[in-house]
Amino acid sequence: MLQRTVAIASLIAISTIISQPAFAQSPGGSLGKIVASKTFAIAYREESVPFSFIDSTGKPQGYAIDICLKIADEIKKEYKLDKMDIKYVPITPQTRIPVIANGTANAECSSTTITTGRMKQVEFLAPDFITGTKLLVRKGSGITKIEDLQGKTLLALAGTTNEKAALAAIVKHNLKVNVVKVKDHPQALLNLEQGRADAYTSNDVVLYGIRTMAKNPSDYEVVGPFYSYDPFSIMIPKNDTEFRALGLRVMSNLYTSGEIFTMYKKWFEPGPTNINLPMNDDLKNALRLNAFAD
Amino acid sequence: MNYSWDWGMLFRDPYAGWIISGFTTTCILAVYAWLIAFSFGSVIGVLRTLDNKILRTIGTIYVEIFRNIPLLAQMFLWYFVIPELLPADAQHYVKRGMPDPQFWTAVVALGFYTAARVAEQVRSGIQSIPRGQQAAALAMGFSRVQVYRYVLLPIGYRTVIPSLTNDFLGVFKNSSLALTLGVMELTAVARQIEEYTFQSFEPFMAATVLYSCVTLCVIALMRFLERRTRIVGTASAGGH
After folding, report:
1. Domain A29-131+230-289 belongs to what architecture?
2. Element of type H or E holding A287
3. Which helix (H) or strand (E) holds A157?
4. Among candidate residues A198, A205, A258, A195, the one with its CA nearest the CA of residue A228
5. Model confidence over B196-207: pLDDT tens digits?
6. Residue of chain B with shortest Cα separation from A198
7. What ipTM goes with this model?
8. Interface contact B80, partner A, CB < 8 A
């Protein structure tokens, strides 16, 4: 027993000594682990078009993933690594926090709204997209705003910022709306197409994306003023100063050089799914405000 | 792990209320589904033991269909496909008219799925009784119905109480699949709280504890039933 303990202790001591010099030159936090393993793990969504989704061959891609790939490139260049493997970790809205908190993925690259509540568990890089809550309705239904939903059925993705915003607007206008929770975007569309509900609430960019998936996209329209303000960003682990600084630098550079506009064009105008959404002024301002000098 | 624990949130408004309402929904859903499963499953189970070949085949087809399709797929079929096959009026009622269509669809789907399993238990319970008993009862002048009512079912049910316990527990656990239809039961509520607060471990821990509590209660109840209904000198009188 004692022998074994000594053996284990010396093994630990030796491995610590051996690995010491390697870590000495490396940064701390998750950046240190990325450099040591030469692997960058990207958390992606399967259906968040065009931010983070899989194509017909099952390969993750999208606007947010492109930004994360730039961060991975920068780490490779900065620490002069001979290679950088990209590992893709599939997530859902329910798993995105634990996956970042427990270190399974280094960055969550999809369409996550920055909220102060979420900052209790994770941190965010600079905003990369600005959107807000709207409604997707059948054309000719006469619904143009949330007040028109009196006595009707509204779908919401359980737990999203959009659900919160819609419920707040319903309370504010003192409406009686039957709010039905759905599991994901495709199921919301199915409910709408089968006539089980009158409207679906989500971010307007998401709604434009869902509309393209409908059997007949021209049957549906996105209506309403913005019921919430949703800036999207890349989610990273908490208290991870060095990685955060590097991430912010990469984004600043994209914003300063204007490369972000090319990336935006690639995914949104008209984009692979024909979403055709020109950049709004809020996003232009947000990009300018987050373009810091090197 | 880089995570801020906050167990107090489980007892704060509105999350405490959500958990209670989710737990209640889970229990009500499971009990309704079990009522369907037990009564309908018993009928199918009896059908499978009859001499009439047609009735026996009907029972077998039912069991094989409902037992072999995954429950998740069955939920989707009941919710998204079956209503499309109905005439327009009924379709409108199912989709918009009836109260809480997600909940009742989940009850029906879970009930009929579990019925197939109950049917198999009931069948094996009846078939475990020596053929001689049935023959003796018939020879005494019992009708077929009376044979089942007074001889086969009372002993058959007692024999399968332990394995029925499993299916009763299964109803509670499988009820979590109802969240895919948008029913806000315990698991769905845990997910909802997670989405709102980004505290993912606490609500699921709470859900785990509540599921364990309810299943332990079910086990205790079934043990009690087993003891109370024991008949000395039959298979169900078993050693423990």
Report:
1. 3-Layer(aba) Sandwich (3.40)
2. helix A281-289
3. strand A153-157
4. A205
5. 887 888 999 999
6. B96
7. 0.72
8. yes
